[in-house]
Amino acid sequence: MKNPDGSKNKRRFYGHGIPRVKLEDLAGKLIVVEGADGSGRSTQIARLVDWLETSGHATVQVGLKRSSLVSSELEKAQHGNILSRTTLSLFYATDFADQLDNIILPALKAGFIVLADRYIYTLMARDMVRGMDETWLKNLYGIALEPDAVFYLSVEPQELVQRNLSKNATLDYWESGMDLGLSRDMFDSFVKYQTAMQGAFRKLQKTYGFTIVDANRPVGSITKELRKKIRVLLAEK
Q: How far apart are CA 218 and CA 223, in angstroms?
């Protein structure tokens, strides 16, 4: 985002943020790659890490369900498929907050490039599709730091089905939205749920202004586009 005079805004939180954090001390860069399972997120992040570290940049990676505080408990709870939408939302928010406070902010202060395999946008989109109030969600994630760049890898739902079946030979319960009762057939539910998720991301894009990347293309073409945009980011003073 830019100021009216064309200069880039200083680093900021989306809302109330975290007390006692000096934003001017966060010298590193926060780069987020969003997208559904099968969109190629992990592949692109691995390529970016290799490229950045080869170029002399220190990196740190974060993602969903990686908090040492609640990740294992969240995983266990999801396997039971018994979480209410509010409990699920707060579980993920806790996971995010712990990583933000203990990994992301310290790494940025040390000058690292932090690569996030999904961020608050996936969490908000999931909750929006499940009927959660958007204003409540914005307040919940007001602790989030605004990233330096966000790339949403967009893939057609039918293509996502094929990629997930090819990789895992099955579809995930939650990524198929089976808790929503969209369809008794997991294949049909997956397509409907991922279509709704894309709609939620398009709505969030209007608010947060992230970059939508066509990820239906070959892996190399996507990598080339991401590197080009990140080079510009790293060149900024």
A: 9
Scanning the structure block, which residue is given the tokens 């293509």?
159
Could you list the pLDDT tens digit for every one of the 237 residues in the chain? 433 333 344 899 999 999 899 999 999 999 999 999 999 999 999 999 999 999 999 999 999 989 888 878 877 777 765 678 888 899 999 999 999 999 999 999 999 999 999 999 999 999 999 999 999 999 999 999 999 999 999 999 999 999 999 988 899 988 999 989 999 999 999 999 999 999 999 999 999 999 999 999 999 999 999 999 999 999 976
| Element housing 76 (H / E) | helix 71-79
How far apart are the C-alpha atoms of 65 and 144, rounded to whole Å?
Answer: 16
Q: How many CB atoms lie within 10 A of CB 149?
A: 17
**CATH code that applies to domain 23-235:** 3.40.50.300
Q: Determine phi and psi for 194, rounding to 5 degrees.
A: -70, -30
- Contact call for residues 54 and 26 (beta carbons, < 8 A): no
Question: Is the pTM above the cut of 0.85?
Answer: yes
